[in-house]
Write a structure and sequence with these properties.
single chain, alpha/beta, Alpha/beta knot, binds 5-azanyl-3-(1~{H}-indol-6-yl)-1~{H}-pyrazole-4-carbonitrile
């Protein structure tokens, strides 16, 4: 998996080289290149933004700089020029975090984990000139995605979230690959939230671990965990309970 990130704050992406992801990079499971957008400016001020057409507050990121940066990171090929789909290698996918994007979900994370090359464009100010996205879309898939219904100052924090979400799904990144299989939102949980977890001691500050988890009866434990997932999801994310598959409705009704 090749990851390129283009940003005016390269240092913001340093956390991707720490901990589990850092180990995956060291082991060659992931290649990460972070590019300073200002390397593609040509003026003394290294300007990357300008006033918005039509007026309004703030500044917009200039198309020329982004165009040159994306051309450098994802060089145009013969098939790009002639608009033909045939090409030897798979095209990179451009991901542009924006509050106006489609929701980034676990399903997106799974899709991104299957890509060979992802390029992340980190906007700042009021965002990136739309023509950058439109031009890129003429030669590669482009996703404008949002990590939630709130507004950040820039795209870098979203890239940290998105990369962590899909990179942990790559073979060899997680120490125990089966843990991802039981994640919240996973197919194994029918998209539900995970229930509560416990470890030693059995009693802590007068709070005891639920007896069923000490029973050694795996069938009972599995049912209890499923019920806990249903109850927690019902209270915190009722929208996810509404999406349960037909075959899970009886146990939903029993648990709730
Ligand atoms: N993804 C995402 C975002 C953002 C975001 C992304 C890019 C820029 C560029 C300037 N401001 C930004 C905010 N805010 N909230 C989200 N869920």
């Amino acid at each position: 998996m090749r990851i390129d990130v283009i940003t005016i704050f390269p240092e913001y992406l340093q956390p991707l080289r720490a901990a589990l992801l850092g180990k995956a990079i060291e082991r060659g499971l992931i290649s990460l290149d972070v590019h300073d957008l200002r390397d593609w400016t040509h003026d003394v001020h290294r300007a990357v933004d300008d006033a918005p057409y039509g007026g309004g507050p703030g500044m917009v990121m200039k198309p020329q700089v982004w165009g040159e940066a994306l051309d450098a990171v994802a060089p145009r090929t013969e098939s790009d020029e002639h608009g033909t789909e045939h090409g030897t290698g798979r095209r990179p996918r451009l991901v542009v975090p924006t509050p106006a994007g489609r929701p980034f979900t676990q399903r997106c994370a799974q899709e991104y984990a299957a890509e060979e090359h992802l390029i992340f464009a980190c906007g700042r100010y009021e965002g990136i000139d739309q023509r950058v996205i439109d031009d890129a879309a003429r030669r590669m898939p482009v996703d404008e995605v949002s990590i939630g219904d709130y507004v950040l100052v820039g795209g870098e924090a979203a890239v940290l979230v998105i990369v962590e979400a899909f990179a942990r799904l790559l073979p060899g990144v997680l120490g125990n690959p089966s843990s991802a299989a039981q994640d919240s939102f996973s197919t194994a949980l029918d998209g539900l939230l995970e229930g509560p977890s416990y470890t030693r001691p059995e009693v802590w500050r007068d709070l005891a671990v639920p007896d069923v988890l000490l029973s050694g009866n795996h069938a009972l434990v599995d049912r209890w965990r499923r019920d806990q997932a249903l109850v927690r999801t019902f209270h915190r994310r009722p929208d996810l309970v509404d999406r349960l598959p037909e075959e899970a409705l009886d146990e939903r009704d029993r648990a709730l």
